[in-house]
Amino acid sequence: MSLPRFSNVSYEQYWALREQSDEWLEYIDGAVYMAPSPSIKHQLVSSNLHTELGLYFRGKPCNVFAAPTDIELASDKFPDRKVVIPDLSVICDSKGFTETKYVGVPTLIVEILSPSNQAHDLVTKFNLYMAYGVKEYWVVNPMKEAITVYTLNEEGLYEQADVKAGTGVVQSACFPGLEVALEDVFR
User: Fold this and answer.
1) Digit-coded pLDDT (tens) for 132-179
2) Whole-prediction pTM
3) How far apart are CA 118 and CA 95, in angstroms?
């Protein structure tokens, strides 16, 4: 998803494209990005991480959603609409749900890198999620078997809260007790 598939597209045109397509399409700054088909390793990592997060959030007021869940980022600071499809998202405010999407800002978003989308997740989405106030952003790199946890600081900027590669346990900065062993994610 490194290059936009369409540029200078209105929000209404984006939804018309979505209705005509079976592909996962995101809408950021008037550009439509197409998500590549995930690899088997990507899917296994996503499934394993979804299980780990699901166990932690069981019985808690937050819910874990896997792709393809449309997230329309909404903020009083930004009038433009943006629609992303994170690999995983944790939503603690249920007021933003519609029949087809969530409108608001998830508390935690996880993106799993693929060779073709690294720049999109590490630059475009990193800056987008930071600007909209996603409190915690996990970048999962299956090629290096690494997880980096970013959290918003008091200035509204992401700072690295944790990083592990190969082995070890990453810890959430926002959710006390949320710890994930890399061995359970990359098995």
Assistant:
1) 999 999 999 999 999 999 999 999 999 999 999 999 999 999 999 999
2) 0.93
3) 32
